[in-house]
Every structure is written in C-alpha cells, then in structure tokens.
Design goal:
- It is built from 3 helices and 2 strands, in the order αββαα.
- By secondary structure, it is an alpha+beta fold.
- The chain has a domain of 51 residues.
- The chain has a two-stranded antiparallel ribbon.
- β1 and β2 form a beta hairpin.
- The protein is elongated.
Length: 97
C-alpha cells in the first residue's frame, strides 16, 4: 500500500507543470557592482548590461587576464621578455593598485 501511494505521489509530481519561479523579471534584476556585461559568445548578443559605457578602472581579473595573455604570447614565441614596451608619460606616471 505504501509503495502504491509513493508511486501515485511521484506520478503527480512529475505531471505538475514547471514554472519559472526561480527567474526574476528583467526590471528587478541587478548586481551589486558598478558595471557588468554578459555576452553570448557565439553570436555576440548582449544578454545583460549595466554601466557598460562608464569609464572605470580595470578590474583585478582584467589585470590577471592581461598577464596571462602576455605569458602565453611569450610561451608561443610571439613576443620576447626582452621586447621593449613603450608607454605614454601619463601611463608611466600612474601608481600601482
């Protein structure tokens, strides 16, 4: 009898429609950051944007990604650690973060 009740309950649960209860309407979705962009990789379609046109300092992830790309370029021989990099006077005057 218990198995029959469990079977009926499972069948009822599987037949219930799935709702989007976990989804937020677009106008109530926000992040606790100054700017963000979410882009679909293959088409380039912007899925979410917030403050995308504001001038902001680069995030730490951007700095790490730049270092990774330079390290990969050195590994594959595109650039050499001895290559000269020219920076503007303004860029050279900036302090570290």
């Amino acid at each position: 009898m218990r198995k029959l009740i469990c079977l009926i309950l499972c069948a009822l649960i599987l037949c219930l429609p799935v709702s989007g209860a976990g989804q937020l309407p677009e106008d109530t979705f926000s992040l606790a950051c100054d700017a963000a962009v979410l882009m679909e990789r293959q088409t380039g379609t912007i899925l979410y944007a917030k403050g995308e046109n504001e001038r902001l300092s680069p995030a730490s992830v951007t700095k790490v990604m730049t270092l990774l790309l330079v390290a990969e370029a050195v590994d594959n021989g595109s650039v050499s650690p001895e290559d000269t990099v020219t920076a503007s006077a303004r860029a050279a005057s900036m302090g570290g973060s």
